[in-house]
Amino acid sequence: MRLQALLVSKALKILVNHGLPPLKYEGLTVYRCPRVFPPGKLTKTSFLLAQTMILKENFEVLDVGCGTGFLSLVAARKAKRVVAVDVNPEALKCTLRNVKANGLEGKVEVRRGSLFEALKPEEKFDLIVANLPYLPGQPRSLLEAGWLDDGSLMVKLLREAGGRLKPGGFLQTVYSSLGSLTRQEIVGEAEASGLSLLERRTFKSLLEIFDVYTFTLKV
C-alpha cells in the first residue's frame, strides 16, 4: 500500500502544481486552478461524493475542504444554501471563480478555516459533505495538506460533525484503502461521537478502494 500511496501522491503534486483544463460535469463548468486539489479521473473522491450526495431543495449544506468548489456547485443547484470552507486561500479563490462562472453567487458562501473553525456558534446543517485528505504523511505546505494526512483530520471531523448537524441531518464523507484508518476505526469513531452509519458504498479503482460513508445522528 505504501508504494501505491507514494505513486498517487507524486501524481497529485504534478497535477496540482500545473492545474488542469476546465471540467464539464452535468452542465457545470469547473475551473481546476493551480495549487488546488482538483476533481478528476485520478482524484475520484469528488465524483463519488457528487454521485451519492443526499440533497433536498430546502437543505442547508456545508462543504468541508471545498477545494475547487466542485461539490458546492453540485449541491447549490438544488440546495437552499451552501457554505464552502477550506484552509487554503487558493482554494477559496478558485471556489469563488467557479461559483461566479456558474451563476451561483447567491447560493454559495465561501469562508476560510479548517473543518468547523469558520462557522458561527449557532450554525447547523442538513448535510455536511467532506472530501478530506487521506494519503499517509505530514504535509509541509497548504498545498500538500490537500492530500496528505495521518488520519487525525478524519477523526476530528467525526468527533465534531454531530454538533453541526440538524436533527435528521447527514454527514457524507469518503475514505480510501490507502489511508491510515481502517473501516472499523472510522465507524467506531463515528458511533462513539453520537453518529450512526446509514450506508457505506464501496468503489474500486486501479490502485485503491474507496468507501463513501453516510452517517446520521443517533436517535
Concise synopsis of the structure shown:
The protein has 219 residues and is of the alpha/beta class. Helices cover 29% and strands 29% of the residues. It has one domain (2-217): Rossmann fold.
Annotation keywords:
globular, Rossmann fold, 6 helices, two-stranded antiparallel ribbon, 219 residues, alpha/beta
Into how many domains do the coordinates divide? Answer: 1
Strand content: 25-35%
The CATH level-2 architecture is identified as 3-Layer(aba) Sandwich
Provide the gyration radius in Å. 16 Å
CATH topology: Rossmann fold
Order of helices and strands: HEEHEHEHEEHEHEE
Mean pLDDT: 89
**What is the total tally of β strands?**
9
* Broad CATH class: Alpha Beta
The helical percent reads 25-40%
Outline the low-pLDDT stretches: none
Shape estimate: globular
The computed structural class is: alpha/beta
Widest β-sheet, arrangement of strands = 5-4-3-6-7-9-8
The quaternary structure here is single chain
